[in-house]
Write a structure and sequence with these properties.
Blueprint: H1 2-8, H2 10-16, H3 21-24, H4 27-40, H5 43-48, H6 54-65, H7 69-85, H8 93-97, H9 102-114, H10 116-127, H11 133-146, H12 151-174, E1 185-190, E2 205-211, E3 214-222, H13 232-243, E4 250-255, H14 260-276, E5 281-286, E6 294-298
Parallel strand pairs: 3-4, 4-5
Antiparallel strand pairs: 1-2, 2-3, 5-6
Helix pairs in contact: 4-7, 6-7, 7-9, 9-10, 9-11
């Protein structure tokens, strides 16, 4: 019986031993095997491997694969989705060993949440790599815009914005170099609970920089604007203008544009920042694909003319 359990949990056994073959697997094969073992493993079996919980399994999996914990969870969710919708006729070894790009498949899953019939129509093209991430993302945006005030679509947009925020903060916690190329000790992460009662506007994340003996606290503000809403430029800038007065520098991070309209939105935001004179504000774009890549559009060049840094709690 003991031998059978170990065989059934072969992936978790390999994971517990940090075996390098896990690193070489495709993301889909690794996530599929992990999903299978987690479904059949009970708490006693996890302890024997030894893992204290499924959360510890996920953390080990993410570390061994060189991805963030949030990305590991997303890969597992997409894998479970594919196992539900891909028929035996459509499944092939190629899907397991060389699957389509993760972000393309994740977007297909999002389309399925909105319109299962449309998702089924797109599935063969996605599996056959006949549609790109940019193309399927445009279809997803089009579905969202059909009825933008629909509660389900609003909830999906909120969830997408929250996922983007987590994705950006986790990517920056791995490497701050895109934003901070100088040789400084930088720690980036979400806001600490202890300062959430701060009476004024709070950013999504904090960057603490140490240069020699000096410590600087910067704000990380992450936004995912709605397509077609150019008035959001002013809403974003009004907020950034206030937030930036409490920090040395403030970074505004937005998704990389995929359409001409989105490119115009970004250009308008950068132009408005310069016109208003916000020297402490930097703007960067983050890709929606994995691994996250950053492109700096404008760097901070100085301090805010209004200095309220003394009002922000010391970290």
């Amino acid at each position: 019986m003991q031998v059978m359990e170990e065989k059934n949990l072969s992936f978790l056994t390999s994971l517990s031993k940090n075996q390098p073959d896990i690193e070489a697997m495709s993301w889909f094969k690794a996530a599929s095997m992990l999903s299978r073992d987690l479904q059949i493993a009970d708490s006693e079996q996890l302890m024997e491997l030894p893992f204290k919980s499924s959360a510890e399994v996920m953390a080990r999996f993410a570390a061994l694969r060189g991805i963030t914990l949030n990305t590991a969870r997303r890969q597992l969710a997409v894998t479970d989705f594919l196992q539900r919708v891909v028929s035996a006729d459509q499944f092939s070894a190629a899907l397991e060993d060389a699957p389509p790009p993760f972000n393309t498949l994740e977007t297909l899953k999002k389309i399925h949440d909105l319109d299962p019939e449309r998702s089924s129509e797109l599935l063969p093209a996605v599996l056959g790599r006949r549609i790109t991430f940019v193309e399927i993302s445009k279809q997803y945006e089009s579905l969202l815009e059909k009825d933008p005030q629909n509660p389900k679509r609003l909830a999906i947009r909120r969830e997408a914005a929250q996922d983007f925020e987590k994705q950006v903060l986790e990517a920056l916690s791995f490497s701050h170099l895109p934003l901070y190329p100088e040789k400084a000790k930088v720690k980036i992460g979400p806001l600490q609970r202890s300062i959430k009662n701060f009476a004024f506007s709070l950013p999504d994340g904090i960057a603490i920089r140490k240069i020699y003996e000096q410590t600087f606290t910067d704000a990380i503000e992450i936004r995912m604007p709605t397509a077609g809403a150019r008035h959001q430029i002013w809403q974003i800038l009004e907020r950034i203008q206030l937030v930036s007065t409490f920090f040395t520098h403030t970074w505004l991070i937005l998704p990389k544009p995929m359409t001409k309209e989105q490119e115009g939105f970004i250009a308008g935001l950068v132009s408005a920042k310069e016109t208003l004179g916000l020297p402490s504000v930097g703007i960067a774009l983050a890709s929606l694909n994995e691994p996250v890549e950053f492109e700096v559009m404008a760097r901070p060049t100085g301090l805010s003319e209004i200095d309220r840094r003394h009002l922000f709690p010391r970290l």
